[in-house]
Design a protein that fits this description.
GO terms for molecular function: ATP binding; kinase activity; metal ion binding; pyruvate, phosphate dikinase activity. The protein is of the alpha/beta class and about 900 residues long. It is about 45% helix and about 20% strand. Bound molecules: adenosine-5'-diphosphate (ADP) and magnesium ion (2 copies). The site of adenosine-5'-diphosphate (ADP) has 15 residues, from strand 6, strand 8, strand 12 and strand 13.
């Protein structure tokens, strides 16, 4: 069995694909060596050694010692040096390397192999005693810290004492003899702390460091990190042992880090920093101000230190070549570490570089245009959720912020405004031109106008699928939900977090990407829908097969969705049209009507409003299909609660207040979500269905007369569970259509279909397809009813379910493919079995969730419908699902 893999001198036993075995660092060192880049030779102890070690009571595999000495001998041959030699010593670094980089793992030990003898040899060879003993001092400190576990503070104190004694301020002002003395002091300290001598023997040092790396795999920090990030224990870590190269041997030496492209904006610029005469850690530690790589960067940052391009022009050119070689080879932006020793360049690390959403987009488009990757590879590289970040303003990264609380990042984007505590106040202030943040314990449908008027929403209760979160995402408003530390006091119009009190009218900023709540107005930067955004969207459209529609009922939302490239409206929630302004009164009047005549008078008012709204939507969609769902309010969302609200209804209807009160209490249901709602309302009050059908068809007739493209009306019946419901309502709809056609003297196109949102509907899909011309899966309700779980109440225990591993993700966020998905599959099959090629789509929140979109593609749906701001995300996710 091979436990050790060599690399260096233009070849390697391993490859980049072997990350599982060699860890990320080791696999890429092997890859760089094998494509001929100048990598100091070394070897990797595999992750299997780690696994073996822990499975066998902390014992190494029997062959390991022998394989390591062979590998070490090879490094000695390749460098022409000998480990522990008294004249020409080999020094190495010991670097841990898990598959994914992991905080908590052991730090790197540099300069290993130094002792009193080899340090003298290094001094003689380099002709620089200061360098040799500074390296020695650093080694003893690093080894004692990371391998022996001695507090760094001990060494810092000794260093300070040495400087004071010499009367100097800077480390590098110490004389060689001071450093030599310091090494002695450090070792004495180790003896004092451990009761054991610091290991002098290089092999003992090596095995000590190797053991420390494997040991750190099981330390508490690493364990916690793995748990949080679902990294299995069996993965293990690898250990890399590599010949040292020195960036700190004089002014022809340097060390640096770089990105092959700009990681913040994606520009094709070499971007990095370096330090002359320094060792690797110094760049990150920020001991001195690092210098720029290129003249261009130096000028743009106004730095007065010369760039690498100026200081070492030929090395810079060599590094430029390496940069292109790496990009061509890995076909992605790389993050590299390099060191220059006496005018020679060495590569010490490469990995895929982390980048902002903006840079990710730019780099994917550029690399495809350069022919480095294909269009489909470019598409696959972008996480759909990145797109979300690009569509909203974000906090200016340079801005100062005072974070006072943290909640759930419920809807992306950042917003600042004056705090208000009621929807009405939000509307009043925003009409006065003020920007406001609506702060509520939680929101309800009564607050919709306030959510619209506000720049953003903050709630103290509720989760990612709470009312505020869902509505805010739909409207593209930033939302921080469930910020429990924030205590709202409506009576005094203020909220408290710890000892901070924020009153109505005071400025706050919320960040829906991080969930942070900040005092004052933190500056934001607008979204940049640059050319590359359009390019990526166009490429996504080339590859995807499913259509993308939007859920929208207001003209603003519909226009926004169209701008984002939707191909129709998949869901118009007609009841949402009645939350606004005075409309709710007419709606309530209709619901609370005592008889048909009263109901009709309210319906007449609603007809006009509804027709106007739908006309507008048809116009905006310009010939694209618009699916209008008939009324589906759980009644409790509309019943007036306060005396004042009831008073308004009584006045509008011209009936005594007492009667309104009585009707309201009669209509109370024990379980409204399973009560008198959806098509059940239309069955008991067919005149509601008739009114809505009339509104839709009159709108279609009107728009059809004037517009070039005739509107496509899809009338959708909600909450159906039996064929007979559909039969009866379809008749009302068709009769109304005929009548409107006759009255208006025009024909228009329309289809009647149904929501599939109850398990019975899914099972009876074959029968429903006799009547329904299309299905739309209402996965919010279908999830609720399949699980028997109320979305509004799930927040109190779902987190615990997640923590205990009962559910992996919130089924209201990402479709439960096994259960709910099974019902969808059955419905698709049975529906299309009856009506070949029947059009089917999804219109729940899941329509904008990438994993659910992939499921829809596999299941053969024709379209997904999601909130306007998720349309671009869905376009990309649909393309990825099709690829
Ligand atoms: P990290 O993952 O924390 O970056 P590394 O193993 O990459 O840890 O090493 C830390 C620093 O030491 C880096 O700057 C790296 O370039 C440098 N380094 C590691 N091995 C060597 C070596 N053999 N010669 C010179 N510098 C090295
Ligand atoms: Mg590194
Ligand atoms: Mg529903």
């Amino acid at each position: 069995m091979t436990w050790v893999y060599n690399f260096g001198a233009g070849n390697a036993d391993g490859r980049a694909e072997m990350k599982n075995l060699l860890g990320g660092k080791g696999a890429n060192l092997a890859e760089m060596a094998s494509i001929g880049l100048p990598v100091p030779p070394g070897f990797t102890l595999t992750t299997e050694v780690c696994t073996h070690y822990y499975q066998n009571g902390c014992q190494y595999p029997a062959q390991l010692k022998e394989q390591v000495s062979k590998a070490l001998a090879l490094v000695e041959t390749r460098t022409g040096r000998k480990f522990g030699d008294a004249t020409n010593p080999l020094l190495v670094s010991v670097r841990s390397g898990a598959r994914a980089s992991m905080p908590g793992m052991m730090d790197t030990v540099l300069n290993l192999g130094l002792n009193n003898t080899t340090a003298e040899a290094l001094a003689k060879q380099s002709g620089d005693r200061r360098f040799a003993f500074d390296s020695y001092r650093r080694f003893v400190q690093m080894y004692s810290d990371v391998v022996l576990g001695i507090e760094l503070g001990n060494f810092e104190k000794l260093l300070e004492r040495a400087k004071a004694k010499r009367g100097v301020k800077q480390d590098h002002e110490l004389l060689p003899e001071d450093l030599e003395q310091l090494v002695k002091d450090y070792k004495a300290c180790v003896y004092l702390e451990l009761g054991e001598e610091f290991p002098e023997e290089p092999h003992q040092q090596l095995w000590g460091a190797v053991g420390a790396v494997f040991g750190s795999w099981m330390n508490q920090r690493a364990k916690t990190y793995r748990k949080l990030h679902d990294i299995p224990e069996e993965w293990g870590t690898a250990v890399n042992v590599q010949a040292m190269v020195f960036g700190n041997m004089g002014n022809d030496c340097a060390t640096g880090v770089a990105f092959t492209r700009n990681p913040s904006n994606g520009a094709k610029d070499f971007y990095g920093e370096f330090l002359v005469n320094a060792q690797g850690e110094d760049v990150v530690a920020g001991i001195r101000t690092p210098q720029e790589l290129t003249i261009k960067a130096r000028k743009s940052h106004g730095s007065d230190l010369p760039s690498l391009e100026e200081v070492m022009p030929s090395i810079f050119q060599e590094l430029e070549t390496v940069r292109h070689q790496l990009e061509n080879h890995y076909t992605d932006m790389q993050d590299i570490e390099f060191t220059i020793q006496q005018g020679k360049l060495y590569m010490l690390q490469t990995r895929t570089g982390k980048r902002t959403a903006h840079a990710a987009l730019q780099i994917a488009v550029d690399m495809a245009s350069e022919g480095l990757i294909s269009k489909s590879q470019a598409l696959m590289r972008l996480k759909p959720d990145l797109i979300d970040q690009l569509l909203h303003p974000t906090l200016d990264p340079k801005a100062k912020k005072t974070v006072i609380a943290k909640g759930l990042p419920a809807s992306p984007g950042a917003a600042a405004g004056k705090v208000v505590f009621t929807a009405d106040e939000a509307v009043t202030r925003s009409e006065n031109g003020e920007k406001v943040i609506l702060v509520r314990v939680e929101t309800s449908p009564d607050d919709i106008h306030g959510l619209h008027a506000a720049e953003g929403v903050l709630t103290t209760r509720g989760g990612m699928t709470s009312h505020a979160a869902v509505v805010a995402r739909g409207m593209g408003r930033p939302c921080v939900a469930g910020a429990g530390e924030v205590k709202v006091n409506y009576a005094s119009a203020s909220f408290e977090v710890g000892d901070v009190v924020v009153k109505e009218g005071q400025l706050v900023t919320i960040d829906g990407v991080t969930g942070e709540v900040m005092l004052g107005e933190v500056p934001t930067v607008p979204p940049q829908l640059s050319g590359s955004f359009g390019t990526i969207m166009a490429w996504a459209d080339e590859f995807r097969t499913m259509q993308v529609r939007a859920n929208a009922e207001t003209p603003t939302d519909a226009r926004q969705a169209k701008e984002f490239g939707c191909e129709g409206i998949g869901l118009v929630r007609t009841e949402h049209m009645f939350f606004e302004g005075g409309r709710i009164v007419a709606m309530r009047q209709m619901i609370l009507a005592a008889d048909k005549a009263e109901r009709q008078s309210a319906l007449n008012k609603l007809l006009a409003m509804q027709r106007e709204d739908i006309t507008e939507l048809f116009k905006i969609m310009d010939g694209l299909p618009v699916t209008v769902r008939l009324l589906d309010p759980p009644l409790h969302e509309f019943i007036p609660h306060t005396e004042a609200e009831m008073g308004l209804v009584a006045k509008a209807a011209g009936v005594p207040l007492d009667r309104v009160r009585r009707r309201a209490s009669e209509l109370q249901e024990a379980n409204p979500m399973l009560g008198h709602r959806g098509c059940r309302l239309a069955i008991t009050y067919p005149e509601i269905c008739e009114m809505q059908a009339r509104a839709i068809f009159e709108a279609a007739a009107e728009v059809g007369r004037s517009a070039k493209k005739t509107p496509v009306a899809e009338v959708m019946v909600p909450l159906v569970s039996t064929l007979e419901e559909l039969v009866q309502l379809k008749k009302v709809i068709e009769d109304t259509a005929k009548q409107v056609q006759k009255e208006q003297g025009v024909n228009f196109r329309y289809h009647v279909g149904t929501m599939v949102e109850l398990p019975r509907a899914a099972l009876q899909a074959g029968k429903l397809a006799e009547q329904a011309e299309f299905f739309s899966f209402g996965t919010n309700d279908l999830t609720q009813t399949t699980y028997g779980l109320s979305r509004d109440d799930a927040g109190s225990f779902l987190p615990e379910y997640k923590a205990k591993g009962i559910v992996e993700t919130d089924p209201f966020v990402s479709l439960d493919q096994e259960g709910v998905g099974e019902l969808i599959k059955i419905a698709v099959e049975r529906g299309r079995g009856k009506r070949a090629g029947m059009k089917m789509g999804i219109c729940g929140e899941h329509g904008g969730d990438p994993a659910s979109i992939e499921f829809c593609e596999k299941t053969g749906l024709d379209y997904v419908s999601c909130s306007p701001f998720r349309v671009p995300i869905a376009r990309l996710a649909a393309a990825q699902a099709a690829l």
